[in-house]
Design brief:
Blueprint (H helix, E strand, L loop, with lengths): L2 E5 L5 E5 L4 H10 L7 E4 L5 H12 L3 E5 L2 E5 L7 E2 L1 H4 L9 H8 L1 E5 L12 H9 L3 E5 L2 E5 L7 E3 L5 H12 L4 E5 L5 H12 L3 E3 L5 E5 L7 E4 L4 H13 L3 E5 L7 H9 L3 E5 L2 E5 L9 E2 L11 H9 L4 E5 L8 H8 L3 E5 L2 E5 L8 E3 L3 H13 L3 E5 L2 H6 L3 H7 L3 E5 L1
Parallel strand pairs: 2-15, 3-14, 6-7, 10-11, 18-19, 22-23
Antiparallel strand pairs: 1-23, 1-24, 3-5, 4-5, 7-9, 8-9, 11-13, 12-13, 15-17, 16-17, 19-21, 20-21
Helix pairs in contact: 1-2, 1-7, 4-6, 5-6, 6-7, 8-10, 8-12, 10-12, 11-12
The chain binds uridine-diphosphate-N-acetylglucosamine.
Length: about 425
Protein backbone atom coordinates (compact mmCIF):
# COMPACT_ATOMS: atom_id res chain seq x y z
CA UNK A 1 0.00 0.00 0.00
CA UNK A 2 1.41 3.40 -0.96
CA UNK A 3 2.43 5.94 1.65
CA UNK A 4 3.48 9.56 1.40
CA UNK A 5 6.79 10.54 2.99
CA UNK A 6 7.00 14.24 3.79
CA UNK A 7 10.00 16.11 5.11
CA UNK A 8 8.49 19.16 6.73
CA UNK A 9 9.75 22.72 6.89
CA UNK A 10 9.81 23.87 3.26
CA UNK A 11 7.78 26.99 2.50
CA UNK A 12 5.60 26.43 -0.56
CA UNK A 13 6.32 28.85 -3.37
CA UNK A 14 5.62 28.97 -7.09
CA UNK A 15 2.74 28.25 -9.39
CA UNK A 16 0.46 25.28 -9.89
CA UNK A 17 -2.60 24.63 -12.09
CA UNK A 18 -5.83 23.45 -10.49
CA UNK A 19 -7.58 20.43 -12.02
CA UNK A 20 -11.22 19.95 -12.92
CA UNK A 21 -13.59 19.40 -10.00
CA UNK A 22 -14.12 15.80 -8.91
CA UNK A 23 -17.50 16.60 -7.41
CA UNK A 24 -18.69 18.30 -10.59
CA UNK A 25 -17.24 15.69 -12.96
CA UNK A 26 -18.92 12.76 -11.17
CA UNK A 27 -22.55 13.92 -11.60
CA UNK A 28 -21.80 15.28 -15.08
CA UNK A 29 -20.45 11.89 -16.20
CA UNK A 30 -23.75 10.39 -14.96
CA UNK A 31 -25.67 12.97 -17.01
CA UNK A 32 -24.42 11.14 -20.12
CA UNK A 33 -26.88 8.35 -19.19
CA UNK A 34 -29.76 10.70 -20.00
CA UNK A 35 -29.05 10.88 -23.73
CA UNK A 36 -28.50 8.51 -26.65
CA UNK A 37 -26.13 11.06 -28.20
CA UNK A 38 -22.45 11.58 -27.27
CA UNK A 39 -21.45 13.90 -24.42
CA UNK A 40 -17.93 15.34 -24.64
CA UNK A 41 -16.40 16.56 -21.39
CA UNK A 42 -13.14 18.43 -20.99
CA UNK A 43 -11.11 19.29 -17.87
CA UNK A 44 -12.00 15.90 -16.34
CA UNK A 45 -9.45 15.13 -13.59
CA UNK A 46 -7.49 11.86 -13.66
CA UNK A 47 -8.62 10.44 -10.32
CA UNK A 48 -9.50 7.05 -8.91
CA UNK A 49 -13.14 8.07 -8.29
CA UNK A 50 -13.49 9.06 -11.95
CA UNK A 51 -12.00 5.73 -13.08
CA UNK A 52 -14.41 3.89 -10.76
CA UNK A 53 -17.42 5.72 -12.19
CA UNK A 54 -16.27 5.17 -15.80
CA UNK A 55 -15.96 1.43 -15.07
CA UNK A 56 -19.48 1.48 -13.62
CA UNK A 57 -20.89 3.29 -16.67
CA UNK A 58 -19.09 0.90 -19.05
CA UNK A 59 -20.61 -2.17 -17.43
CA UNK A 60 -24.03 -0.59 -18.05
CA UNK A 61 -23.29 -0.50 -21.79
CA UNK A 62 -21.96 3.07 -22.05
CA UNK A 63 -18.97 3.64 -24.34
CA UNK A 64 -16.42 5.90 -22.67
CA UNK A 65 -13.24 7.05 -24.37
CA UNK A 66 -10.63 9.01 -22.48
CA UNK A 67 -7.82 11.03 -23.97
CA UNK A 68 -5.93 13.37 -21.67
CA UNK A 69 -8.51 15.35 -19.74
CA UNK A 70 -11.23 14.74 -22.35
CA UNK A 71 -13.85 12.03 -21.97
CA UNK A 72 -16.38 11.18 -24.67
CA UNK A 73 -19.37 9.19 -23.45
CA UNK A 74 -21.88 7.46 -25.67
CA UNK A 75 -24.87 5.94 -23.85
CA UNK A 76 -26.75 4.89 -27.02
CA UNK A 77 -26.09 1.23 -26.11
CA UNK A 78 -27.17 1.54 -22.46
CA UNK A 79 -28.69 -1.88 -21.70
CA UNK A 80 -27.90 -2.80 -18.09
CA UNK A 81 -29.30 -0.26 -15.60
CA UNK A 82 -27.62 -1.89 -12.62
CA UNK A 83 -24.96 -0.59 -10.21
CA UNK A 84 -23.54 -3.58 -8.31
CA UNK A 85 -22.42 -3.44 -4.67
CA UNK A 86 -18.76 -4.17 -5.53
CA UNK A 87 -18.53 -0.87 -7.41
CA UNK A 88 -20.83 1.29 -5.29
CA UNK A 89 -19.20 0.36 -1.98
CA UNK A 90 -15.94 2.07 -2.93
CA UNK A 91 -17.64 5.33 -3.89
CA UNK A 92 -20.86 6.74 -2.48
CA UNK A 93 -21.27 9.09 -5.45
CA UNK A 94 -22.26 6.03 -7.56
CA UNK A 95 -25.79 6.68 -6.28
CA UNK A 96 -25.80 9.51 -8.87
CA UNK A 97 -26.64 6.97 -11.59
CA UNK A 98 -30.03 6.26 -9.98
CA UNK A 99 -31.97 9.33 -11.16
CA UNK A 100 -30.68 9.29 -14.76
CA UNK A 101 -31.25 5.52 -15.12
CA UNK A 102 -34.87 5.64 -13.95
CA UNK A 103 -35.53 8.68 -16.14
CA UNK A 104 -34.05 7.17 -19.30
CA UNK A 105 -34.68 3.41 -18.91
CA UNK A 106 -37.74 3.40 -16.65
CA UNK A 107 -35.90 1.12 -14.25
CA UNK A 108 -32.77 0.89 -12.15
CA UNK A 109 -31.16 -1.34 -9.56
CA UNK A 110 -28.50 0.48 -7.58
CA UNK A 111 -26.73 -0.87 -4.51
CA UNK A 112 -27.12 1.14 -1.30
CA UNK A 113 -23.81 2.85 -0.60
CA UNK A 114 -23.67 1.60 2.99
CA UNK A 115 -21.78 3.23 5.83
CA UNK A 116 -18.68 5.29 5.35
CA UNK A 117 -15.98 6.56 7.63
CA UNK A 118 -17.43 10.05 8.07
CA UNK A 119 -20.95 9.02 9.07
CA UNK A 120 -24.06 7.07 8.15
CA UNK A 121 -24.92 9.13 5.04
CA UNK A 122 -28.27 7.65 4.03
CA UNK A 123 -29.92 8.18 0.61
CA UNK A 124 -33.51 8.44 1.84
CA UNK A 125 -33.97 11.87 0.25
CA UNK A 126 -32.99 10.57 -3.21
CA UNK A 127 -35.55 7.77 -2.79
CA UNK A 128 -38.25 10.08 -1.43
CA UNK A 129 -37.88 12.41 -4.41
CA UNK A 130 -38.11 9.66 -7.04
CA UNK A 131 -41.14 8.24 -5.26
CA UNK A 132 -42.82 11.66 -5.36
CA UNK A 133 -42.16 11.68 -9.12
CA UNK A 134 -44.21 8.53 -9.47
CA UNK A 135 -41.54 5.83 -9.43
CA UNK A 136 -42.16 2.61 -7.55
CA UNK A 137 -39.15 2.47 -5.28
CA UNK A 138 -38.24 -0.38 -2.95
CA UNK A 139 -35.14 -1.29 -1.01
CA UNK A 140 -34.52 -5.03 -1.47
CA UNK A 141 -31.48 -7.10 -0.61
CA UNK A 142 -29.32 -4.00 -0.16
CA UNK A 143 -30.38 -2.53 -3.50
CA UNK A 144 -32.60 0.41 -4.38
CA UNK A 145 -34.95 -0.81 -7.08
CA UNK A 146 -36.93 1.83 -8.96
CA UNK A 147 -39.38 1.48 -11.81
CA UNK A 148 -41.82 3.68 -13.71
CA UNK A 149 -43.24 4.15 -17.20
CA UNK A 150 -42.28 7.81 -17.20
CA UNK A 151 -41.43 10.03 -14.24
CA UNK A 152 -43.91 12.81 -13.57
CA UNK A 153 -42.97 16.35 -12.63
CA UNK A 154 -43.58 17.05 -8.93
CA UNK A 155 -42.92 19.49 -6.12
CA UNK A 156 -40.00 18.08 -4.14
CA UNK A 157 -38.76 19.16 -0.73
CA UNK A 158 -35.68 17.65 0.86
CA UNK A 159 -35.50 17.44 4.66
CA UNK A 160 -31.91 18.70 4.64
CA UNK A 161 -29.69 20.28 2.02
CA UNK A 162 -28.19 17.39 0.08
CA UNK A 163 -25.77 17.93 -2.79
CA UNK A 164 -25.95 14.59 -4.60
CA UNK A 165 -29.65 14.34 -3.70
CA UNK A 166 -30.34 17.63 -5.50
CA UNK A 167 -28.20 16.51 -8.45
CA UNK A 168 -29.90 13.11 -8.74
CA UNK A 169 -33.40 14.59 -8.68
CA UNK A 170 -32.50 17.44 -11.04
CA UNK A 171 -31.17 14.91 -13.59
CA UNK A 172 -34.23 12.67 -13.20
CA UNK A 173 -36.59 15.64 -13.66
CA UNK A 174 -35.01 16.59 -17.02
CA UNK A 175 -36.88 13.74 -18.77
CA UNK A 176 -40.02 13.77 -16.58
CA UNK A 177 -43.45 14.67 -17.84
CA UNK A 178 -44.16 18.25 -16.73
CA UNK A 179 -42.55 20.63 -14.25
CA UNK A 180 -40.51 19.63 -11.21
CA UNK A 181 -39.65 22.09 -8.46
CA UNK A 182 -36.88 21.16 -6.02
CA UNK A 183 -37.16 23.20 -2.83
CA UNK A 184 -34.38 23.41 -0.23
CA UNK A 185 -32.03 22.57 -3.11
CA UNK A 186 -28.26 22.58 -2.62
CA UNK A 187 -26.66 25.77 -3.98
CA UNK A 188 -23.15 24.34 -4.44
CA UNK A 189 -21.28 25.50 -7.58
CA UNK A 190 -21.08 21.85 -8.66
CA UNK A 191 -24.91 21.78 -8.87
CA UNK A 192 -24.73 24.84 -11.13
CA UNK A 193 -22.03 23.23 -13.29
CA UNK A 194 -24.20 20.13 -13.72
CA UNK A 195 -27.22 22.30 -14.59
CA UNK A 196 -25.14 24.16 -17.20
CA UNK A 197 -24.15 20.85 -18.80
CA UNK A 198 -27.76 19.60 -18.76
CA UNK A 199 -28.95 22.86 -20.35
CA UNK A 200 -26.30 22.42 -23.06
CA UNK A 201 -27.88 18.98 -23.63
CA UNK A 202 -31.30 20.57 -24.12
CA UNK A 203 -32.69 20.48 -20.57
CA UNK A 204 -34.89 23.34 -19.36
CA UNK A 205 -33.66 24.32 -15.91
CA UNK A 206 -33.84 27.59 -14.01
CA UNK A 207 -32.79 28.57 -10.50
CA UNK A 208 -29.68 26.38 -10.17
CA UNK A 209 -27.47 28.07 -7.57
CA UNK A 210 -30.54 29.11 -5.53
CA UNK A 211 -32.54 26.94 -3.15
CA UNK A 212 -35.44 26.55 -5.59
CA UNK A 213 -34.68 24.80 -8.89
CA UNK A 214 -37.35 24.48 -11.58
CA UNK A 215 -37.09 21.89 -14.32
CA UNK A 216 -39.47 21.60 -17.27
CA UNK A 217 -39.22 18.00 -18.46
CA UNK A 218 -38.43 17.34 -22.13
CA UNK A 219 -38.84 14.19 -24.28
CA UNK A 220 -35.15 13.70 -24.87
CA UNK A 221 -31.73 15.29 -24.38
CA UNK A 222 -29.13 15.60 -27.10
CA UNK A 223 -25.34 15.51 -27.27
CA UNK A 224 -23.20 18.41 -26.02
CA UNK A 225 -19.71 19.53 -25.07
CA UNK A 226 -18.98 20.84 -21.60
CA UNK A 227 -15.89 21.97 -19.68
CA UNK A 228 -15.87 20.88 -16.02
CA UNK A 229 -15.41 23.71 -13.50
CA UNK A 230 -12.20 24.01 -11.43
CA UNK A 231 -11.95 21.98 -8.23
CA UNK A 232 -12.65 24.41 -5.38
CA UNK A 233 -11.60 21.90 -2.71
CA UNK A 234 -8.26 21.27 -4.43
CA UNK A 235 -7.92 25.05 -4.74
CA UNK A 236 -8.63 25.48 -1.03
CA UNK A 237 -6.28 22.67 -0.05
CA UNK A 238 -3.29 24.31 -1.82
CA UNK A 239 -4.21 27.71 -0.35
CA UNK A 240 -4.18 26.16 3.13
CA UNK A 241 -0.94 24.30 2.46
CA UNK A 242 0.77 27.52 1.37
CA UNK A 243 -0.70 29.43 4.32
CA UNK A 244 0.44 26.81 6.85
CA UNK A 245 4.02 26.77 5.53
CA UNK A 246 4.35 30.57 5.42
CA UNK A 247 4.60 30.37 1.64
CA UNK A 248 3.64 32.38 -1.41
CA UNK A 249 1.87 30.70 -4.32
CA UNK A 250 -0.15 31.39 -7.42
CA UNK A 251 -2.89 28.96 -8.40
CA UNK A 252 -3.98 29.07 -12.02
CA UNK A 253 -7.13 27.80 -13.80
CA UNK A 254 -9.23 28.66 -10.75
CA UNK A 255 -10.68 31.79 -9.14
CA UNK A 256 -11.44 33.23 -5.70
CA UNK A 257 -15.16 33.29 -6.57
CA UNK A 258 -15.27 29.52 -5.97
CA UNK A 259 -13.74 29.78 -2.49
CA UNK A 260 -15.15 32.99 -0.99
CA UNK A 261 -15.84 31.59 2.49
CA UNK A 262 -12.35 30.13 2.76
CA UNK A 263 -10.67 33.28 1.44
CA UNK A 264 -12.51 35.25 4.11
CA UNK A 265 -11.07 33.00 6.84
CA UNK A 266 -7.56 33.02 5.33
CA UNK A 267 -7.63 36.83 5.32
CA UNK A 268 -8.61 36.73 9.02
CA UNK A 269 -5.68 34.38 9.58
CA UNK A 270 -3.36 37.07 8.20
CA UNK A 271 -2.85 35.96 4.58
CA UNK A 272 -2.72 38.40 1.68
CA UNK A 273 -4.88 37.13 -1.18
CA UNK A 274 -5.04 38.76 -4.59
CA UNK A 275 -7.74 37.61 -6.98
CA UNK A 276 -6.56 37.56 -10.59
CA UNK A 277 -8.33 36.60 -13.77
CA UNK A 278 -8.53 32.77 -13.60
CA UNK A 279 -5.87 32.72 -10.88
CA UNK A 280 -5.32 33.34 -7.16
CA UNK A 281 -2.19 34.70 -5.50
CA UNK A 282 -1.62 34.03 -1.80
CA UNK A 283 1.14 35.33 0.47
CA UNK A 284 1.17 33.97 4.01
CA UNK A 285 2.33 35.90 7.08
CA UNK A 286 5.28 34.75 9.25
CA UNK A 287 2.75 33.42 11.72
CA UNK A 288 -0.94 32.73 11.15
CA UNK A 289 -3.66 33.78 13.60
CA UNK A 290 -6.10 31.07 14.72
CA UNK A 291 -9.57 31.47 13.19
CA UNK A 292 -12.81 29.72 14.19
CA UNK A 293 -14.98 28.09 11.54
CA UNK A 294 -18.38 26.43 11.31
CA UNK A 295 -19.13 24.15 8.38
CA UNK A 296 -22.52 24.43 6.64
CA UNK A 297 -23.96 24.07 3.12
CA UNK A 298 -22.70 26.45 0.41
CA UNK A 299 -22.07 29.39 0.46
CA UNK A 300 -20.89 28.81 4.06
CA UNK A 301 -17.59 27.13 4.94
CA UNK A 302 -17.37 23.69 3.23
CA UNK A 303 -17.11 20.54 5.34
CA UNK A 304 -14.64 19.28 2.72
CA UNK A 305 -12.18 22.03 3.86
CA UNK A 306 -12.60 21.46 7.61
CA UNK A 307 -9.65 19.07 8.09
CA UNK A 308 -7.27 21.27 6.11
CA UNK A 309 -8.28 24.36 8.10
CA UNK A 310 -7.89 22.46 11.35
CA UNK A 311 -4.29 21.74 10.31
CA UNK A 312 -3.72 25.50 9.85
CA UNK A 313 -5.11 26.27 13.28
CA UNK A 314 -2.78 23.69 14.83
CA UNK A 315 0.21 25.95 14.10
CA UNK A 316 -1.47 29.36 14.39
CA UNK A 317 -1.18 31.88 17.21
CA UNK A 318 -4.10 31.59 19.64
CA UNK A 319 -7.07 29.24 19.86
CA UNK A 320 -10.01 28.44 17.58
CA UNK A 321 -13.28 26.56 17.70
CA UNK A 322 -14.25 24.30 14.79
CA UNK A 323 -17.89 23.23 14.49
CA UNK A 324 -18.83 20.48 12.04
CA UNK A 325 -22.54 20.61 11.23
CA UNK A 326 -22.77 18.39 8.11
CA UNK A 327 -21.33 15.03 9.12
CA UNK A 328 -21.50 13.46 12.57
CA UNK A 329 -18.13 11.72 12.57
CA UNK A 330 -15.73 13.96 10.76
CA UNK A 331 -12.95 14.59 13.28
CA UNK A 332 -10.94 11.41 12.80
CA UNK A 333 -7.97 13.45 11.58
CA UNK A 334 -7.87 15.18 14.99
CA UNK A 335 -6.45 12.09 16.71
CA UNK A 336 -3.81 11.78 14.00
CA UNK A 337 -2.95 15.49 14.27
CA UNK A 338 -2.49 14.95 18.02
CA UNK A 339 0.14 12.32 17.14
CA UNK A 340 2.05 15.15 15.48
CA UNK A 341 1.83 17.19 18.69
CA UNK A 342 -1.30 19.25 17.99
CA UNK A 343 -3.37 20.54 20.91
CA UNK A 344 -6.98 19.57 20.05
CA UNK A 345 -9.91 18.73 22.30
CA UNK A 346 -13.08 17.24 20.85
CA UNK A 347 -16.54 17.56 22.35
CA UNK A 348 -19.23 16.09 20.09
CA UNK A 349 -19.27 18.06 16.84
CA UNK A 350 -16.93 20.75 18.20
CA UNK A 351 -13.14 20.80 18.20
CA UNK A 352 -11.11 23.23 20.32
CA UNK A 353 -7.72 23.83 18.77
CA UNK A 354 -4.90 25.75 20.44
CA UNK A 355 -1.94 26.53 18.24
CA UNK A 356 1.46 25.12 19.22
CA UNK A 357 4.84 26.57 18.20
CA UNK A 358 5.75 23.46 16.22
CA UNK A 359 4.46 20.05 15.17
CA UNK A 360 6.74 17.02 15.09
CA UNK A 361 6.83 14.46 12.30
CA UNK A 362 5.35 11.00 12.99
CA UNK A 363 3.55 8.18 11.20
CA UNK A 364 -0.13 8.97 10.72
CA UNK A 365 -3.05 7.17 9.13
CA UNK A 366 -5.32 8.71 6.51
CA UNK A 367 -8.96 7.90 7.24
CA UNK A 368 -10.84 9.64 4.44
CA UNK A 369 -10.10 11.85 1.49
CA UNK A 370 -10.15 15.32 3.08
CA UNK A 371 -8.78 14.10 6.44
CA UNK A 372 -5.75 12.88 4.49
CA UNK A 373 -5.28 16.33 2.99
CA UNK A 374 -5.28 17.82 6.50
CA UNK A 375 -2.56 15.38 7.54
CA UNK A 376 -0.45 16.22 4.49
CA UNK A 377 -0.64 19.94 5.36
CA UNK A 378 0.38 19.18 8.95
CA UNK A 379 3.25 17.03 7.64
CA UNK A 380 4.46 19.93 5.48
CA UNK A 381 4.93 22.13 8.57
CA UNK A 382 6.04 19.46 11.05
CA UNK A 383 9.69 19.14 12.03
CA UNK A 384 11.30 16.05 10.54
CA UNK A 385 9.60 13.27 8.63
CA UNK A 386 5.90 12.48 8.51
CA UNK A 387 4.72 9.26 6.91
CA UNK A 388 1.08 9.37 5.80
CA UNK A 389 -0.24 5.83 5.51
CA UNK A 390 -3.23 4.70 3.36
CA UNK A 391 -2.93 7.46 0.78
CA UNK A 392 -5.27 5.63 -1.59
CA UNK A 393 -7.80 8.02 -0.05
CA UNK A 394 -5.85 10.95 -1.53
CA UNK A 395 -5.72 9.30 -4.95
CA UNK A 396 -9.51 9.34 -4.98
CA UNK A 397 -9.60 13.12 -5.06
CA UNK A 398 -6.26 14.89 -5.67
CA UNK A 399 -4.75 14.74 -9.14
CA UNK A 400 -0.94 14.38 -9.12
CA UNK A 401 -0.75 15.53 -5.51
CA UNK A 402 2.91 14.80 -4.87
CA UNK A 403 3.97 16.17 -8.28
CA UNK A 404 2.10 19.42 -7.70
CA UNK A 405 3.42 19.78 -4.13
CA UNK A 406 6.97 19.04 -5.31
CA UNK A 407 6.59 21.72 -8.01
CA UNK A 408 5.85 24.14 -5.16
CA UNK A 409 9.05 23.13 -3.38
CA UNK A 410 7.67 20.59 -0.91
CA UNK A 411 9.83 17.60 -0.06
CA UNK A 412 7.37 14.75 -0.62
CA UNK A 413 7.67 11.35 -2.15
CA UNK A 414 5.45 8.32 -2.60
CA UNK A 415 6.82 5.13 -1.07
CA UNK A 416 5.42 1.61 -1.34
C1 LIG B 1 -21.42 15.81 -1.29
C2 LIG B 1 -19.98 15.79 -1.71
C3 LIG B 1 -19.08 15.64 -0.48
C4 LIG B 1 -19.41 16.71 0.55
C5 LIG B 1 -20.89 16.74 0.85
C6 LIG B 1 -21.29 17.91 1.74
C7 LIG B 1 -20.08 14.81 -3.93
C8 LIG B 1 -19.79 13.65 -4.80
N1 LIG B 1 -19.77 14.69 -2.63
O1 LIG B 1 -21.69 14.55 -0.68
O2 LIG B 1 -17.72 15.75 -0.91
O3 LIG B 1 -18.71 16.44 1.74
O4 LIG B 1 -21.66 16.87 -0.37
O5 LIG B 1 -20.93 19.11 1.16
O6 LIG B 1 -20.53 15.85 -4.38
N2 LIG B 1 -28.34 13.05 4.00
C9 LIG B 1 -29.39 12.28 4.45
N3 LIG B 1 -30.19 11.67 3.51
C10 LIG B 1 -29.97 11.78 2.17
C11 LIG B 1 -28.90 12.57 1.73
C12 LIG B 1 -28.10 13.19 2.67
O7 LIG B 1 -29.61 12.14 5.64
O8 LIG B 1 -30.73 11.18 1.40
C13 LIG B 1 -27.46 13.75 4.99
C14 LIG B 1 -26.04 13.22 5.00
O9 LIG B 1 -25.93 12.10 5.85
C15 LIG B 1 -25.27 14.43 5.49
C16 LIG B 1 -26.04 15.61 4.89
O10 LIG B 1 -27.33 15.10 4.57
O11 LIG B 1 -25.32 14.51 6.90
C17 LIG B 1 -25.43 16.22 3.66
O12 LIG B 1 -25.05 15.19 2.78
P1 LIG B 1 -25.00 15.37 1.19
O13 LIG B 1 -25.01 16.80 0.84
O14 LIG B 1 -26.03 14.49 0.58
O15 LIG B 1 -23.57 14.79 0.87
P2 LIG B 1 -23.18 14.08 -0.47
O16 LIG B 1 -24.03 14.64 -1.56
O17 LIG B 1 -23.13 12.61 -0.28
Amino acid sequence: MDKLLIEGGARLHGEVAISGAKNAALPILCAALLSAEPLTLTNVPALRDIATLLALLRQMGVKAEQSGDTVVLDASGLDNPVAPYEMVKTMRASILVLGPLVARCGEARVSLPGGCAIGARPVDQHIKGLHAMGAEVAVEHGYVRARTRRLKGARLFTDMVTVTGTENLMMAACLADGETVIENAAREPEVVDLANCLVAMGARISGAGTDVIRIQGVERLHGATHRVMPDRIETGTYLCAAAATGGEIRLTRTATSYVDSLVDKLLDAGCEITPERDAIHLKAPEQLTAVSIRTAPYPAFPTDMQAQFMAINCVARGAAVIRETIFENRFMHAVELQRLGADIKIDGNTAFVTGVPRLQGATVMATDLRASAGLVIAGLVAEGETLVDRIYHLDRGYEKLETKLAALGARVRRVS
